[in-house]
């Protein structure tokens, strides 16, 4: 295969941190342009869904099936996330990379529908406050990485362990019908912030030039996770 059609095969497409200055700058710019595009697509999808009765019906369907409904949704989302990440990291096809990012955006738009419906229906003003807070935190964390140039890859093992522990707690909460409480929400906000530091440092230090789609998906996933738990925190403070 020609290098022009598969940039991953080109010797000059190494880790972005070691690439020429213009290539590194182009990679970083593409990553954040794709991140903004993914967020814009998510907002557009949610706006389209909320023009219909789909959010209310989806929430009712999940609630009507009790704990099993939430477990099915969680399991389905985890499976789709795994597939989307694999596609976005493909080294053989740009089309598959974009398919992975698109699939993940659609999956996030579906998983967000219930909490967005509750927020817009019963918690006036909370949605915009959560969005602004999320963007502010993301901006601060991004600035920390870009200013310090610190490599946060050491967080990988901690985040992986924390992720498995969080999934286990969520499953237990659903199965045994108990609330995880505000401490868990604060912990998940810290967890999402850790992932933003980790993903951002990977953009600077570990992704290869040409992997901007995979990098933007990782950042997008972390931003949405942060938004989810900030929104949940703001909603619980209103109760």
Overview of this protein structure:
The protein is mainly alpha-helical and 239 residues long. It has one domain. The chain contains eight helices and no strands. It has helices at residues 21-49, 54-64, 66-88, 94-122, 126-148, 156-176, 181-205, 212-238. The longest helix is centred in the N-terminal third of the chain and has 29 residues, at 21-49. The protein is globular and about 55 Å long.
Number of helices: 8
Which structural class best describes the helix and strand composition?
mainly alpha
Number of domains: 1
Gap between N and C termini: 59 Å
What's the order of the H and E elements? HHHHHHHH
> Main beta sheet, described?
none
How would you sum up this structure in a few lines?
79% of the residues lie in helices and 0% in strands.
